[in-house]
Structure formats: structure tokens, C-alpha cells
Amino acid sequence: MRGNQATRRLRLPGKLADCSSSDNEATELFLVEGDSAGGSAKQARDRKIQAVLPLRGKILNVASASTEKLSANQELSDLSLALGVKPGKDFRLDDLRYGRIIIMTDADVDGAHIAALLMTYFYREMPQLVEAGRLYLAQPPLYRLTQGGKTVYALDEEQREASMKNIFDGRGKVEISRFKGLGEMPPSQLKETTMNPASRRLLQVSLPLRDSIGADLRRHTDQLVNTLMGKKAELRFGYIRDHAEDALANLDV
Q: How does DSSP assign the chain, residue by residue?
């Protein structure tokens, strides 16, 4: 077993900052966008149990890509190498090198798109990983609010306004700063807000079970992924048209 682990480590992509622990249940892999965010994450991580893999922007959309493009894509090849598994029908959950896979992107529209592309990849190529509860979304804050020696973080505008109303006393100015990206966040703040298990917030990505009860929900999930991420632009247009009010309410402008 040790020999196999050593061989697998030799085949890891060079940009992966791996963790030192070989306890697969305790370890975590953070998927981050770009070298800037990757640098901050590498400084903020717990080197024993947390690994970091920087990705170059938006990965290939596997829902609309050909098999040839999928197999030739270097980013996805590096990702599967880091995970220690093969995508598709050859996937084996027992080969997974980490207990949690955490998608950590900027708290903006581009970050949400990258997260959607990564979730689509795992859903299409490694659904067993998602079914096992191994996939998570990090929740980095969008705002930092400071008054005197008191500092709080807010995920979005709604939480920012709630903090202004319920936490600060209204006496004195509250300094509000918006994070433009994870790469601009000091490692100490990134650790405190997004990476430290004791203080962070994670969302677990889940799928309906493969049984008679979850069958209809699973078909609905397949249909939604095909509509939003597939080749047919007219399906996306129809979905946006039918959900225009919701889409406008959630625009980040």
C-alpha cells in the first residue's frame, strides 16, 4: 500500500501543493481559481491535512465538449491526477486521495460560473464522489465590516445589511470593504473566514439517492444540467426567459 501511495505521489501535477497526511478521511483538497488565489490559499492552509490545486480560470464545460476534447484537456487531467482517480466508468471511490473536495472560488459571478463548471464535471464524470458526500463549496465572504476593534464578515448584501442593523451600535463610522477576489484577501483572513474548519462555512453538494424515491429527482437533475450546461443555447434561453424575475433579482452589478 505504501509503495502504491509513493508511486501515486510521483505522478501528481507540479502545481499541486499536497498535504503531508496520508489519512484520506481527514484530508481536504481545495480547488481554487488562479495562481493568485492559490498563493494565498497555500499560505493559509493547514499543511498537514489541506492541499491546494490552482486552476487556470474556467475549466472545460464537459456537458458540451466532445470526448476527444475531454480526454485532451490538461486542466482536467491534472485534476484527476491530484484526486488519484480516473474519470468516467473507471472511477473508483476507494482510490480518492482526499476526504473532502472543496471548490473555493471568488464570491462573484465569475466565481459562481467556475464553481458551476466544476460541479458539472464531477456530476458527469464522478457522480459517485458527489453521492458519497465528498464535494463541498467554500463560502468566502464578500464584505468585511470594521468599527473600532470589532470586525465581522458578510457573505452578501443581505448579510451585510443585517450586520449593520444588529451588530453595530450606530455610534461611529463602520468601515466596509468588498473583497474583489480571494487573491486580494490576506492569508490570515482567508484562513479565518474560509479555510479553518473551526470558523468556516461549507455547503455540501448532494444528489438524490439512486432508488425509486429519488429516481424522478435524479431525472430532473439530469434535465436541468443539460438545459443549463449543454450544447443547445435555445434551452438556456428558454430557461432564462421563464425565470427572468429570479435571474434579475440575483444579478451581481
A: -HHHHHHHHHTS-TT-B--S---TTT-EEEEEEHHHHHHHHHHHS-TTTEEEEEE-SSPP-TTTS-HHHHHH-HHHHHHHHHHT---GGG--GGG-S-SEEEEE--SSHHHHHHHHHHHHHHHHH-HHHHHTT-EEEE---SEEEEETTEEEEESSHHHHHHHHHHTS-SSSPPEEEE-S-GGGS-HHHHIIIII-TTT--EEE-----SSTTTHHHHHHHHHHHHHHHSS-HHHHHHHHHHTHHHHHHT---
What is this structure's pTM? 0.82
Q: What are the catalytic residues?
A: 33, 106, 108, 110
Residues 167 and 222 in one domain: no
Examine residue 183 and state whether it is found in any structural domain, yes or no.
no
Domain extent at residue 49:
2-139+192-207
Mean pLDDT of 68-74: 81
Based on the fold, state whether residues 128 and 14 are members of the same structural domain: yes
- Same-domain pairing of 125 and 157: no
In this predicted structure, what is the pLDDT of residue 106?
Answer: 87
pLDDT digits (tens, 9 = 90+) for 109-122: 888 889 989 999 99
